[in-house]
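Most newcomers find our protein records easier to grasp once they have seen one. A record pairs a protein's sequence with a compact description of its fold. An example says more than a description, so a record of this kind follows:
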Amino acid sequence: MVIQFANRQFIGPAITGCLMCASLFVDAQDLEGIGKKNAFSVSGGLSAYTGFYSTDLNDPRLTPWTWGLSARLNLSIYDLQIPFSMTFSEKQRDFRQPFNQYGLSPRYKWFKAHLGYRSMNFSELTMSGQRFFGAGVELTPGHFRFAAMYGRLRKEIYQDTTNSAQVEPAFERWAMAAKIGAGTEASHVDLIVFRANDRFDPVALANGRYGTQQPEENAVVGVDIAVSPMKRLQIHAAASVSLNNVGPVPEERIGSDVSNNYDSFLFNMDSRTRRGTALKGGISYNLKGVILGAKYDRIDPLFRTLGNYYFLRDVENYRGTVAFGMIKQRLRFQAELGRQHNDLEHIQNARTVRTIMSGNLSYNSGKVYTGTLNYSDFQADMTSLFQAAQTDEVKVKQVSQSISMNNSFRFRNTDKGSTRTMDMSVSWQAFSNDGYGAQEASRTTSWTATCGYRQQLKQRHLTVGVTGMGSRFDGAGNRRTKYGASMNARKGLDADRLGLSPRLSCYLNSAEGGSNTLSVVASLGVDRKIGQAHTLGLLLNYNSRQELSASDPSLYQVRGQITYSLTFKPPVKSRTEKPSSP
């Protein structure tokens, strides 16, 4: 029997007023391992730092003196992980624990349950990846496929006009979903039903406690099919129909809409109801290493599913791909051509048609050389039916092109324990905005080139590297260039228990009109290991910016930080089996 656990943590710093999420997952716990491993263990660490900051900027970015202390503790009961953490600094005090969100997924053979905060995947057009608090079940005996869930998708949040932090109000949203089908992940037929509705307080809604938000009711019925009629042929298709209501239920339903009213546990249909459809399909064929594929998507503007965090609507896509490999798959090529447009119902004031072309060529020698060549061309033709510039319509054409090439050479000497690596890359990008008629056209181009060399000598605990770069940007009658180099190294002493890491970077920036600036960044890091669990660190950083055409002194920033860390791990127990009695 296998049990799956998950813990999630929400953190609410007072400074940002935002929710930040940290998570820790343990894939599975095998109950058969009880008695064969440590039942309880503790691990964690402690870290502390203090630093200073000095600058001649008019607006300093940091405080002159900082300090902080943090500790983490992880309790392990077999494979169940329970992490804790504490942080103290001159700006923040908090205690963090993982029980704001928790989840449990026990599994036994073809049975799997979900309890607490979990996520389930039914299909892309119904519910996929949405986290809920509730319960779910998955059954896969043989080729039978069944899944169901019921839970809360989000909590209720009232509008708070007294808080400067902008938190969007929300209704409490509940959902249920079910899937029944047959087959496997590669070949199956599934029928999916999804329903979600917002629960709210009518008095709070009338008083504006939810801001401009309106409650929704949503139901989606979909089918997902994947088949392989031939050995090298794969076909996938999905279709869904959605019903959606926005706003509270009308108190009185009068007129001709009465005959259209339909209430059930699944959905309530009335004059607010809007119906939409969505289609997704794809086909691929592998012909002796040559892969041909095509995809088609069509999402109606009225299609709506609350089972996904984000869904692009009112769009139709056509895409075709081809890929093949040569020379024992060392040389590979892939190309894609696609077309996309919106305004499927021809009722919008603006219409956009996009054409997408891309290609990739790569070669891997297997030992020394790796290289890639990429090309992309994106074109968007936009038409607006608003009258402007004495015409009935306005047309704009935007084209974005890019070409990049990356090369890497790597040489290894296993006897000496040395590795030498050289990387070279060049990229070019162009963007044009071409108007029609009296509209003004514009074009911008940029290119960047880098070349780097890195050598590592493991026996000497030495790593050195140098990188040079140059870039240029042209656009709107302005040209800016940047070029420079950086050098870095790390030398390990005392059997690599003491490390020295210097770094120096210099860049020259110039703009059309004679404005030239020099940027310098220098740093030195020292790290020292003491025993098996203690580490001391020192970091000094200096950066400056000097305008060469002016006599003013350079603007500088100096930062320094001393750190200490302690890490402890549970002891490793080795169980020795008792000899069998004769």
Observations:
- Residues 1-34, 254-258, 387-391, 575-582 have pLDDT under 50 and may be disordered.
- The longest strand covers residues 394-413.
- The radius of gyration is 31 Å.
- Helices lie at 202-206.
